[in-house]
Amino acid sequence: MLDFFNRNFGRFLVEQSGNPVADAATALSSGHTMRKGGRPQRIASGWAIVRPGRSTMQFELAAAGIDYSKLTRYEAFLAELEAWDGTPRMFLEFAKRPVPVANLFRTFDLRSIRICSPTGVETFDFTQPPEKDGCKIHKVLWKLKKGDK
Amino acid sequence: MDRIKVTAHLLAPVVTGGGYMTFDGLLAALLFDRLQDVDVAHAAVPIRQSDGLFHASAAIMEATREHVAFIAALRPDHSIDPDLILKNKHGQLHRKFDTSLTNVMNSYALLTAPTVTWYAEGDPERIRQLVEPVEFIGKRRASGFGRVARWDIEPDDLDGIEGPFGEPLRPVPVERFGGDKSHPVVDAAWRPAYWNPLHRTACYAPV
Fold this sequence. Notes:
The complex is a heterodimer of chains A (149) and B (207). Chain A has 149 residues and is α/β, with parallel strands linked by helices. Chain A contains 4 helices and 6 strands. Chain A has a 6-stranded mixed beta sheet with strand order 3-2-1-4-5-6. Chain B folds into 2 domains: 2-63 and 113-163, 2-Layer Sandwich (Alpha-Beta Plaits); 70-106, no CATH class. Helix content of chain B is 13%, strand content 32%. Chain B has helices at 23-35, 38-43, 124-131; strands at 2-10, 14-16, 49-50, 53-54, 64-74, 102-112, 115-122, 148-155, 172-173, 185-189, 200-204. The relative contact order of chain B is 0.26.
């Protein structure tokens, strides 16, 4: 699982030491050179979608090998889920606190989508409407899917 | 090794931080308390293994589920990410930048059910010796959650891996699962230590 993260995302941010846990933790918690210049910054906002081969994120780093997008997290996640080819994905939400390595999970099936964030992991079935007490991201994505504003 | 059904009769709701609460994980935790060595504890779990896969189900509960949060008051000296702390003029970390308590909120799931059930294939007598002294399970045990009234161990037909309809009873790596493959594939730890992200792989697992 961490091989997937490091191979498709982490290695573009930090040199790989051979310790996958440490490498992933460093990628998520250390400062990285920004595209706009200035001091290195930790990824403290936005989102990322890790795919086999080429990943995309919102926070504009200088790192090559990653695509950058200005979509909101909901727009990006919805587009990904609607056009998904069935290969594994990792959906990440960033915030001020780093995403702990323990919160990294891949998604393999639309019936069990996992959104990884600093505060935990949200899991939902994207083939079904959200329950009343379902997670926020499922409700927002479902509304967007139906075309509601 | 016998096929058994283990039932914990509960007197209080169980608090969990997530995960499948497999029976081998529970026994490994009990053994670790005594042995203080992760590998030795896992090797001593009295449950059948097939190439590292324990024949022990996840916890089965017909439970109502609520979110709960507990506040922990911590001194931040050793727990905070050093990257977040202002460095001194020499570029080094201040040893103590604050002595006040920091409140941290931890979120859990609260599961209310009369019983928790597991299916497993193992040594019933050794399992009984391990679980009978256990009065609490789950997290927040010191606060009274997860109190167990009694343990029942009885013979059963299930092997702890597949249910009667071929459904997964625990996380099983995709390539090793011979049951009903219509279930969703998830990223899950399939062997202890279940907290270790290196043990996660694509699995069929209980919904």
